C-alpha cells in the first residue's frame, strides 16, 4: 500500500478543504445586492383599477358595519321563547354578526394596503433619535405616511373605516354591561327538584328505574315536568340538570349524613361546573372522574365530586335520591346548596 500523501499536495495554512477545492475566498462583508426593481400594480397605472379597489375596500368596511348591526338585531330583536330553536338562532346570528364585524375591518385594511397604499421598498441606515430635529423628522415621516396612504384623498374609505371602527367595540360593551355583577343567589339556591320528583332522561323525558342504571353507565337527567313548562324552561333546565351514575357501592366514600343520598351505588350530581358554569359532560368510567371540557376542572365521583384538578373551588352539589314504590328514581329534596359558579358572593 502506497502513501497517499504524494497524491494530494499540502494545502496552504488557514485555508479549508472546501475553499481549496472551490477556490472560494473569505469576504469581510456581504456586498449590498440592492433593491429589486419596482413592479407597479394595476391600481398604480390605471385610474379605473384604483377606483375599483377603493370601492372594494368600502364594501368590506360596510360589511363590518352590517355585521355589527346584525349582532344588535340578534341581541335585542330575536325573542327567546324558551325554545332551543330560538336560542340556537340567536347564538348563530350573534356569532355571524361578530365575525363579519371583525372580518370586514381586517380584510378591508389588508386589501387597502395591498392595492392602494404605496408599496415602494426603502432601505435606511439605523440611527438613534436623539435631537429635537430628529423628532421633527419623525413627525414629518408620519405625516408623509398619512399623505401617501391616501386617507385625506379618499374620504369614502376614511369615513367608512371610522364608522366600522366606531361600531365594532359596541357589541362587547353591550355584553359586558349586561352581566349581572350582583346576582340574587337565591335564584340558584332553589330548582325544580323537590321530594318525590322523578328523574327522567334528557331530552326524552323518560322516567328512569334503578334497574336500568348499570355500573359504569351515565345519564343526563332533568326533573319530570320540565319539558312541559310554558315559560322559563331553559332557565330551569340550566339550574336543575344533573348527571346520574352508578358505581360499586364499596368505591363510594360518603361523608357523615350523606350515607343515604344515593341508592345502591347510584348517585346524582349537578351538571353545572362550579367554576364558571360550563356543563360537565365527560365521565371517565375507569377513574370515576367527571371532567369539565371548558377549563379542565376534574371532580372525583368517589369522593362526593371533590375537585382534584383545575380552577373550580368547590365540589359539584349532590342531589339526594331514592327509589319510589314502583322502582323509579326520585329526588329526596332539592339541592342543599346553590348550583353553578362559586365566584359570586353567597350571602
TrEMBL record:
InterPro entries: QcrA_N, Rieske_2Fe-2S, Rieske_2Fe-2S_sf, Rieske_Fe-S_prot. The chain crosses the membrane at residues 57-80, 92-113, 156-176. Keywords: 2Fe-2S, Cell membrane, Disulfide bond, Electron transport, Iron, Iron-sulfur, Membrane, Metal-binding, Oxidoreductase, Respiratory chain, Transmembrane, Transmembrane helix, Transport. Residues 1-48 are annotated as: Disordered. PROSITE patterns: RIESKE. It is found in: Cell membrane. It is a multi-pass membrane protein. SUPFAM superfamilies: ISP domain (SSF50022). GO terms for molecular function: 2 iron, 2 sulfur cluster binding; metal ion binding; monooxygenase activity; oxidoreductase activity, acting on paired donors, with incorporation or reduction of molecular oxygen. GO terms for cellular component: plasma membrane. Residues 1-11 have a biased composition (Basic and acidic residues). Coiled coil: none annotated. Its main location: membrane. Residues 266-330 form the Rieske domain. PANTHER family: CYTOCHROME B-C1 COMPLEX SUBUNIT RIESKE, MITOCHONDRIAL (PTHR10134). Belongs to the Rieske iron-sulfur protein family. Iron-sulfur subunit of the cytochrome bc1 complex, an essential component of the respiratory electron transport chain required for ATP synthesis. The bc1 complex catalyzes the oxidation of menaquinol and the reduction of cytochrome c in the respiratory chain. The bc1 complex operates through a Q-cycle mechanism that couples electron transfer to generation of the proton gradient that drives ATP synthesis. This is Cytochrome bc1 complex Rieske iron-sulfur subunit.
